[in-house]
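#struct-pred

JT: dropping the chains for the assembly here, can someone run the whole complex?
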Amino acid sequence: MTNEDIFKTFLDDPLLIEKGYIKKEMVGKLKIIEQSEIKLIEVIRIAINSNMNQETENVTSRKINQYLNK
Amino acid sequence: MIIERIELNNFMCYAGKNSFEFKEGINVIIGDNGYGKSKLYDAFYWVMYDQVFVPEKKEFQNTRSVKSKIISDKAKHEAKDGSLSTSVSITFHNLEKDEVFILERKYAVNVKDSRILESNDSEFTVMRKELSYLNAKLISDEEEKRKIVFRILPAQIKDYLWFQGEQVESIIDFNKQDTLTRAINVLSSISRYDELKEIAEAAAKSGNKEYDKEVKRLSKDGDRSDQLENEKERLEEAIETLGKELKEAKDNLSIAEGKCDDLLNKIEDAQKVAELQQKKKSVLGRLEELNDEINEEQISFHKKMFRNKWVLKGTESLHSEFSEKYSKYESIKLQLAEALRQEKESEEEVLKKLQTRLPLDVPEPIYVQRMLDEERCLVCDREAKKDSEPWKRIKELIQRHDKYSHKHVGKQLTKQDFSNDFKKLYQNGLSLTHRISDIDEDIAETLKKTTGLNSKIRDAGKDLKAIDEEIQKLLSDTSLSEESARNIINEYSIQNKYVKDFLDLVSKISQKLEFNKNNLRSVNEQLKSLITGEIPKWLIEKKDVLNDFELIASSTRDRVFNNLIMQLEKEANHHYEAMTAGNKSIRGQIRLRKLPNGNYMPEIIDGNGNPLLGSNTSNLILVKLAAIMAIISAKTSTGNVDLYTLITDAPTSVFGEDYTIGFCKTVSKVYRQSIIMSKEFYKNETLKNELLTNRDIKIGKVYLITPTIPESERANRHDLSTKISVLN
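RK: done, full complex below.
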């Protein structure tokens, strides 16, 4: 399973739309290789890529923190 | 990567040089028991893992343990002084990259004076060839070799691709609830979702901690905040503990439910056995009563010989004979009495006559005696010489008295008088005679009762035999024993109670958990109310984003897993239907049932969705195989597992010939390449022809292997080798 596949399964979660993070029509347009302005989507992207690169949990947490503290 | 060839040199029963070529599709090695199928499986396994299966120990052992046993007996027998070796090489072809890997394992010993000097270890070499560039490289780095082996067949999926028939049970073990879940984890990417879930949980925890710190910093009442923080910490700990308890309770509930389900399949049979045993007990009781009754009747029968005078049966004539004789006796007696009377009368008559001459005792006896002594009649004074006529006359006078006076005194009619005894006997006999006529009826009644009892005993015996046969058949069909049937019923009752208890426990813990969560919410609200000023928006947003990430990671993982389960269920049913298509028995459908602890268990259901009880062993094995195949086939789209070859030794032996063709069809669809060792095709010519001609089976190479010495005649294995014939 590729990163993109995993990313898509996360985007399929109804909570993203319910909580207003994205609109339904946007779901198909988002790609893991492209950055977005939506913080939750970026966090998911960082986590998936970091996991794929077999980075430790601490490293991933630090990356997410750095992003959200900006 | 497909296997192109395996070459065996002096390996076990494969003496000399032997090779098998393989193609895509299903490759079949046909041979009866003891023909060398398992040794071929061993050859594959030995190359990859330096181990062979030791049947006596029922385990795989390293070369270091088995040593020269892996070398052909024929080769050892014929060996001259010097080195002797066995080797197996497998050629794997990566079709996508057009590269070839040749993995070879070799084990050598030294022979000196017909003695074998064993070495410990085998030698493993890996050759890599790039066909496009026509180059070849011998890999010397051990780590690289290990990586290549792992690439060819990753350890975690090895069990699902290389297995022996009897291992199917343990690969998908219905008694272990997480077996399927583990298989899914191994063969799917679900573990990545699990890792992402953990990342999200850690991130959310860190975000919440940062937020709480800020809340505390901005508090207007430090003491109260500390108090609430402590309360919050206590509640969080309690929630964590309760969460663990809840998980444990759910696990236990799942185990109990799993056991109940497992037992449910057997309980019907066990109950039948129990009912039959109860019935048998009742028949045995009845039989015992009847036997007691008939024993009593036997004793009573003997007593009746005398008590009921049966002994007299057939003596009816005796009494009449006796009566006749008795009557005759009495009659004779009467006649004798009459004769005596008449004699007496006549004598009295004579006496009367005599009395006209001389009265009795006249002359008196003393004078008569004197006359006799003097030999002279004193009356007439004449001589009467002794023994003369006159003397005799005189003597008559003295004897006359004796003769007539004593003749009838005490005279008896017979020598012995049995009249009284005979009379008693007659009278006794007379009373018995009337009863003799009833004896037949009495005996008939008794015999009727005995016959009735014997008939009942026979019937009970028949019932008992029928019940015993039914029990034995049931036990044989269900592989139960009387004891295990009893245990199943007891165990089912215990596990049912556990289910109820754990359900109660889950409910109680859930309530407590909810209560603590509400309290935690309240504490958080209170902490929030103590804040002076404003928490930075970015921090609030960070906290919310991370908590939502945790929620999404968790729900995404569950959704993906559930989809995988649905897909697996669909695939498993597809394979199960295909494999059982040729069989008429009820086969049901496979359902992957979710357990309270989140694990899934395969079960067979009927058309109404109810668990199908009493499924036969073949079906259960096929469900397991279908589940394994589903895991493999569900992965084909991901381009991961489909490149591996299935190698299985005697997989069809566990479910019989009826399913063999279905199995081959399915295998040839699910696996790009498979190598199957089977005896079913050896025994059944029709089956073999179908294998070779059926268009639904993508057939590779088919071989027949035959040993030079039959297994039963292998006391001397010095000439043992294996003949390989290609059938297509």
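JT: nice. Chain A has one domain: 3-68. Chain A has a mean pLDDT of 90.
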